[in-house]
Amino acid sequence: MRLLPIVIALFAGSTATAGTVIAKDLKTGIGLGGGAMVNGLTAKQYLSEDFAVQAHLGAVGLGLAVGADAILPQAKLWEGPGATIHWGYGAGAGVWFYNVGIYGRGQLLDISGIVEATLRLKKYPIEFSADFRPGFLLGLGAYSGTAYSGFHIDAGGGAVRWFF
């Protein structure tokens, strides 16, 4: 929770210069969010207007989780006076390294497809994203062969990122 005031101060003290556009002019974003099993810090880098990579790092339960995604941003769905909504698709993977008492140590790997919607503010260099992430979980270590392995359609993610 100590990080929240810093993030709010960054967002509040930064405005986009007239004519700057996320993905075109502002390529790097940092913030808070989550993806394939990961909630915590997130970063997104637009390598071009048509391709982005994003990463997540966070603590999940009694372990550490990391994730990475490749996103292919697509056309605008909507444009208003203060924001635009875009969509995209891609793929990602996340892994949770855990040591959970009676369950022992292991890893839980998630490989997922991604359908993403992003809301980009025009006045501020901020992007909000929401993801639908159907995929496949694979339990390794203590969770091998358990109910934690198999296909899933109930996963999602999202983030808020400040771009510079």
User: What overall form do the CA principal axes indicate?
Assistant: elongated
CATH class reads Mainly Beta
Q: How many structural domains are formed by the residues?
A: 1
Distance between the termini: 23 Å
What fraction of residues sit in β-strands? Answer: over 45%
Assembly classification = single chain
Helix-strand category: mainly beta
H/E element sequence = HEEEEEEEEEE
Major β-sheet profile: 8 strands, antiparallel, barrel
How many DSSP H or I helices? 1
The appropriate CATH architecture is Beta Barrel
Helix-residue proportion: under 10%
CATH topology: Porin
Number of strands: 10
Poorly predicted residue ranges: 4-18
Give Rg in angstroms.
17 Å
Describe it.
With 164 residues, this protein is mostly beta strands. It has one domain (21-163): Porin. Helix content is 6%, strand content 64%. The protein has one helix and ten strands; from the N terminus they run αββββββββββ. The chain has an eight-stranded antiparallel barrel. Strand 2 and strand 3 (51-60) form a beta hairpin. The protein is elongated and about 55 Å long. Residues 4-18 have low confidence and may be disordered.
